[in-house]
Amino acid sequence: MNNRQTRMLQAATLVLAAPFTAIGQTPTTVPEGLQVPAGHVLYLKTTATGTQNYVCVPGQSGPAWKFLGPQATLFVKIPWIDREVEHQVATHFLSMNPAEDGLARPTWQHSVDSSAVWAKAIGTSSDPGWVAEGAIPWLLLQVTGVQRRAPRVGFLAHATYIHRINTSGGVAPGSGCSENSLGAVAMVPYSTEYLFYRSENRIRLKEF
């Protein structure tokens, strides 16, 4: 095996191992009400960039921006020679959850095995002691649906809870929605960290 092949093999190994680097880490502290229930452990820590999307609709007090859904890409950092690089591991968007009769839910889909999870927010915080000014709230989400593409294949399908923390940006515009712009969509940039948890008794690494 030549040097180029060796580097490619090392890179592939790092990419496959990267999602497991969060296992055993101490989860980030969070505001009251956002704690993950006992019996669930962190197994994937990602950073994400994208947009929070809003649509201009009629309201009782006049036209207003209504949340439409997210659109983002999730990354993990992996070592590469003498530095770290970001590797895409998932995408985030709004879609219909088959487990809830097609109810629209925030969705995360793995970039390699296409496994997916849907989740609902069960805790939220805009505490200024934690959340940056002008940023969307931090969230604790509970998984309400999972999808695998094949038996025993589905990295994200093991998730039970998800944290959205360390947010920046993403809040609805303060202007621009009027009778003349009904139906307009505003795509507001944001960044955050998504932390994925699984039952500590649910899987073993050898299954992967």
Q: What would you say this structure looks like, in words?
A:
The protein is mainly β. It has one domain. It has one helix and eight strands; from the N terminus they run H-E-E-E-E-E-E-E-E. The chain has one helix spanning about 5-15, and strands at about 40-55, 65-80, 85-95, 105-110, 115-125, 140-145, 160-170, 185-200. The chain has an eight-stranded antiparallel barrel with strand order 1-2-3-4-5-6-7-8. The longest helix is centred in the N-terminal third of the chain and has 15 residues, at about 5-15. The radius of gyration is 19 Å and the shape is globular. The model is unreliable at about 5-20 and about 205-208 (pLDDT under 50).
List the defining traits of the structure above.
eight-stranded antiparallel barrel; mainly beta; globular; disordered C terminus; 208 residues
How far apart are the termini? 26 Å
Query: Element order, helices and strands?
Result: HEEEEEEEE
What is the strand content?
A: over 45%
Main beta sheet: strand number and arrangement? 8 strands, antiparallel, barrel
Helix percent reads: under 10%
Number of helices: 1
Please, what is the average pLDDT?
Answer: 85
- Number of strand segments: 8
Give me the secondary-structure category.
Answer: mainly beta
Query: How many structurally independent domains?
Result: 1
Low-confidence stretches: 4-21, 203-208
- Strand line-up across the major sheet: 1-2-3-4-5-6-7-8
